[in-house]
Design brief:
Ubiquitin-like (UB roll), Rossmann fold, Dimethylsulfoxide Reductase, domain 2, 7-stranded mixed β-sheet, globular
Amino acid sequence: MAATWLRSIIVPVSEAALVIECRIDGERVSAECGATILEAAACAGIEIPAICHDSRCASTGSCRMCLVEIQGKEGLFTACQTTVEDGMWVATRNSELDKYRETELKWYAAHISPAAFAAYPDKPLHRMMRTHGVVPAGKAAKPDEVDCSMPQLRVDMSQCIDCLRCVNICEQVQGESVWHEISRGDRSHVVPKRGALLSEGGCVACGACVDSCPTSALTDATGGQAESWERTTCAYCGVGCELEYGLSSGDIVASRPAAGRPVAKGHGCAKGRYSFGFTHSEDRILQPQVRVGNDWQPTSWDKALSSAASRLKAISKKHGPDAIGILASSRSTNEDSYLAQKFARMVIGTNNVDCCARVCHTPTAAAMKAILGAGAATNSFDDIERASTILVAGANPLECHPVIGARIRQQVLHGGSKLIVIDPRRTGLAEIATVHLALKPGTDIALQNAIAQVIIAQNLHDPDFIAARVEDFDAYAENVSDWTPERAAEICEVPAEDIRTAARIYASEGPAYCAHGLGITEHVQGTEGVMGLVNLALITGNIGKPGTGINPLRGQNNVQGTAHMGCDPGIYAGAQPVKEARQAFEQAWDAKLPKKQGLHLMQMMDAAAAGKLKALVVIGYDIAATLANESETARALSKIDLIIVVDLFKTETAERFGHILLPAASSFEKDGSFMNAERRIQRVRKLVDPPGTARADWQIICDLAKHMGHQQSFTYASPEAVWDEIRVVWPAAAGISYDRLESSGLQWPCPDVDHPGTTILHQKAFPHGPRARLRPLHFRPSPELADKDFPILLSTGRNLYQFNVGTMTRRSSLLQLRATDRLDISPQDAADLGISEGETATIKSRYGSATLPVHIENGIRKGRAFTTFHDPARHSNRVTGPHRDRMVGAPEYKLTAVRIDRNQAQPAIDAS
């Protein structure tokens, strides 16, 4: 049974539409069929006290505070568990009920100390006590009785009232089951399930137990008392959770999930909850700086912009506009990114504009655009709970997209869905998977062809859907006909029977939802790897329906939006092809725009290495630390005459190669919008002022454009004015106004103000016509092969507590949970190499080396290794190589042949 917090999205539409009427305390109340009395009262603004209840969890009714009377029925009823009925009359307050609640509150108050009561006035039980005039009568804990082993949470079980909300929310929402109750009766109490301290119990610092706890037994250790709360969208991954941030004296001091929001449903993760401290970091760039020799010198905005403008114009005049490149930020807003590509094309006169989507999900966009006609998620996150089967390919959402990972886990554990995981590592979701295909990295096409072969050979495909909406099925079937599971098993190093099992489940136990990540895309056949997933969805009819689809898990908060706004050499805003839409944009902007095909990010690096790219504007993107084959990237950057960096901090790119550094505002310090991985556009709100003289990206771009003579075309009163221009040039977003976004996000296409947004694409047709064409795919092994000198295959990726190169997360308390990158290897390889846990080892590839502490991981197979790239000091990307996707140029981060050498006489490092 699915958790209560998701009930609203899995109730059939016909049932959810039914409305009944009742009376609560004499007031006429309308409620949805199936709602509890507590829910109906809350919707009507009638508060019924409830201590043990959390709307995100199944109700227990144990606190008895929500007891009500129902006319015509004997006894009292728990409002949190009793379903409202048509015509029901309910009394929530009278002298008897008030007296009962006061008695109960006095019992609870015996556990609450006066100090805790005063320090945490907003805790639910404390508020109820004040309302009813009940005073605290408990004792405070001794300092050594408070558990602060998790830097983000403070645990004081002297204030626990045994309501079990922490137990329930950890199990039913996050799924970690960190807390549990021991003993019985008056002796029962809650403790970490594993170990004496919270840090020993598997806590992932999501903060859900803190949100739910009605007392100060569980509180945030990192935040202060907020004077006010404001809602905005998270600055980390592409899930797009909405959060509320607590403000005090112009600073952000606390964070919590926004209740009832469409994406996260009131949940959050460690990064969203506890990694906002970078905003107030002491090393923020406060004013523009220019490099003079080897030193940086502060300067004024006018001088910095004048210098940047004059040098860009000089380079353009001498070498042409295509000697300049613009790299936009996937952490910027849609409005920022739209102006970045407009600046490139209109001011500079080049299509040399790109963003970090190039190295992650441009293969996804290209593949899905080619087959389906739109390069974005076909379905919504809510379809996870509608799916009977979930396929997770090349992604580790429990760590990289934690809220979605938790939703998938809950749907498998409690919703009854089957789970197929395709990943070389045994990740957290693989642990609970129906079948885990631990394939050899880089062999996705072989595996996908074998799955298709089983589906077609066993007549598990959907002939009706194929006949109505698919082309070239016969050619596709012929292409996969000789890809037997046995053939693929030899290449992929997975059992043939597991391939058959996965194929049968995906094809016959639908609807089947597919989520994929960079484990699919960051290969030389990355684009084709996504095409292979689309092929499987099409032949089984898992497109255009609830609970189905192909759904990329985007890595950064606005990587979907930044690319979609036109920060790609081949498209304008709205992903409209340059060749087809150039005249329309020339008319909208009243300017002649470049016709020449632009360079993407990796081609810019090639041009720089060849001495042809003379200037680069880098907005919020530390390419020196994040691009593959780091040494070659450094060589290319060192040859560029002018690098202008727009960022919050002095990044590796700025410090080592920059010439002009312009201080930017964070997403907490400006207005705008983000687009999440499910095509949902949501508001970003300014919460605090930027430090020093830092400016929002959109303002910096406009100011630079004005210094280059484009005053009229880059004058906007606000980000909303920029967005309104986007709505004009991108018809699919015409109906998405800031006013409509104020209450909730909207998914494009949304062509007019009366349109509700589109939750599922391709329900009746595809953008290019009624039918989609299957793509026969041929497996081509990567040039990156293991041999006797480099016998281990290394993949790189992210972990739960850090983000990219740590620009934001390493300036937060999360650094205490994962201090640096580590090298994960199998127990067998560790034994063969004579390496113990925590010892340092040097990984060497054909391209470079890096030294890392070692973690011995049971989920890693022999001959495989994994590391992250969150600590710039570790230079993990010196190891990764030059190979790229042959269609869109994305680097192959997921496959590098290495050898591992144990470092002698070095102390062990705790990288946990």
